[in-house]
């Protein structure tokens, strides 16, 4: 019995060594002049959406690929409907994950982790709270961890000011931006006079907050980064108190690109199935394989795995940018 096992082990070892030392042969890089786009961005959410918009505004041709579509309804526009948005079948991606190791004493696996698909990604189903207070320590810790000052709180606040279009403060305020694309606003206090809010418990809560000390006038100011107390938070809502998000940014840039130098196109309800590599000075992404009409397995429109997806190739002149979220970004890689 020892000899067959020894032969089996030797064979497996040889196969492992071959697998470890043999690199797949990549095709030669195609002529960039034949590329359909300068860039392909996989994912239309908080990461990929603003980047795609900036590239298009800078004069590049960009294709945004997303597994969802352009959803505009009461769930995605009315702020208080965010709890409905996370269960909207047009948007929902119902991920669950296990975080406990086998044999844990009190495991609570199968935690629900809702994300959204569609133009705007999870920015069209989040709770809209615009709160960067108390993030200073987090960003400075990341900067120290990676020895990269671009992650510092001071530097990240520059980006906050760059994207913010503040609608509720005087423009002389040095801690906020007033010319960006993400609109921020506060809820009018007049809503508290509505009889529907005349609940004894809500009144008690409001009274306690009002008498607990001086209110924090601007939760997102630099001076109040570590403040404690009651505050009226701001939200990513516009002047009409509708949701403001990456969706609006993409739609606006796409419309402007029709008459400008850049170009922004959308491939919606489309899966990016594979990033295609070629053999340059080092492996380089020359395109992406996509399947139109396909769905993610965690999406409401998933109807089972297809045996053979009908795919097509989109070639790029410069880069494929994968920013499809923490879970699906790995699939095309």
Automatic annotation (TrEMBL):
State the superkingdom: Eukaryota
> Which is a Pfam family this sequence falls into?
NAD_binding_8
The prosthetic group or cofactor this protein requires is: FAD
GO molecular function list:
flavin adenine dinucleotide binding; oxidoreductase activity, acting on CH-OH group of donors
Q: Where are the transmembrane segments?
A: none
Q: Which UniProt keywords apply?
A: FAD, Flavoprotein, Signal
- Signal peptide (UniProt feature, chain positions): 1-20
Residue ranges annotated for the Glucose-methanol-choline oxidoreductase N-terminal domain, each copy included? 111-326
Keyword Flavoprotein set for record: yes
The UniProt similarity line reads: Belongs to the GMC oxidoreductase family.
Q: What is this protein called?
A: Glucose-methanol-choline oxidoreductase N-terminal domain-containing protein
